[in-house]
Design goal:
Elements (H helix, E strand, L loop, with lengths): L9 H58 L2 H10 L36 H10 L2
């Protein structure tokens, strides 16, 4: 039996080469699009971080400006330094000698008894 060879024409080779080139170009395009998506996500993360840092900087600058003002010094002197201004009348509260301190009552949580069916209903249906 005689083997028949199918001759490959130049058109077939050219078409095969074009198809192979097209596949390579599509694969390259896909990898570039994935890289573009990754870079866009990174840009968005950096933009968010930049906004956070600049807003923190603005808040800190405001706090520094207030801390260096006369109003902050006066506030500290009156509240924490226990100082008075000229012309102020100082009032010191006095506690009677025989007074007892009132105990602080801390409420304690009391457990509730829940039926088993109600517990399962809450798990499945969120009641």
């Amino acid at each position: 039996m005689e083997k028949r060879r199918f001759p490959i024409e130049k058109r077939q080779l050219l078409l095969g080469g074009l198809i192979l080139l097209f596949i390579v170009l599509i694969a390259d395009l896909n990898s570039r699009l994935m890289e573009l998506d990754r870079l866009n996500q990174e840009r968005n993360r950096m933009a968010t971080r930049y906004y956070w840092v600049t807003s923190t900087e603005a808040v800190l600058k405001t706090q520094i400006a207030y801390a260096q003002s006369d109003a902050a010094v006066e506030e500290w002197a009156r509240e924490e330094g226990h100082m008075m201004k000229e012309g102020d009348v100082v009032i010191v509260p006095m506690v009677p000698k025989d007074a007892t301190e009132q105990p602080e009552i801390i409420p304690t949580a009391t457990p509730q008894v829940v039926e088993e069916i109600d517990a399962w209903r809450a798990i499945f249906f969120g009641d």
